[in-house]
Amino acid sequence: MEKPIYTITSSRDEKVFIHAMPGHFISSSNHLNFYIGTSDIKHNHDVSVDAAMLMASYYAERGIEADTVLCLYETQALGAYLAHELARPNMLNPNPDNTIYTLGPEYDAQGNIIFRDNLRKLITGRRVIILISCITSGKTVQRAMESVSYYGGTVVGITSIFSATKNINGVEVNTIFTEDDVPGYQSYPSHDCPLCRSGMPVDAIANGYGYSLL
Description:
alpha/beta, six-stranded mixed sheet, 5 helices, 23% helix, 34% strand, globular
């Protein structure tokens, strides 16, 4: 698959960037005409730290406090930097005294997020931020929100690197990049995909971990 790859930088910090590759991609619930690459923000220390600062500013400006960052799709390192930034003193909260935890999910056979007994204390009664690399339909985040609620936590924020959705279950999405940053970006229901109807072959299967060529 020879496809052009575009680098898109944040208007707030030119050192924070994603990649966009046009094509025909299948996710768990949608077909996409762009694959959004977030590996540098998730795995490059310098880019992660700068991205975490952008993400944390949203919560500092609004006075939103959190106890736990729930990290989906290999965002644990980014989540640790985000937690570090959230715990920093700032003008609105000059003397933060809370410890902010980070954890990744475990899934049962049905794909539901579960928390073992020794980790429930990080969710139950806690204010939780859900961190994810990319949001298209929001269904993955919705399931994570349901799990947090089931275990007695409260979702106070949703943070992503890229999101095509502005609000999920009444919670605003705090994101660095939106579909406006990727001109022409579209996602389609799997049962109603114009790319399929036009006979365009599928290039790859994609999820929050990356893509696999077909």
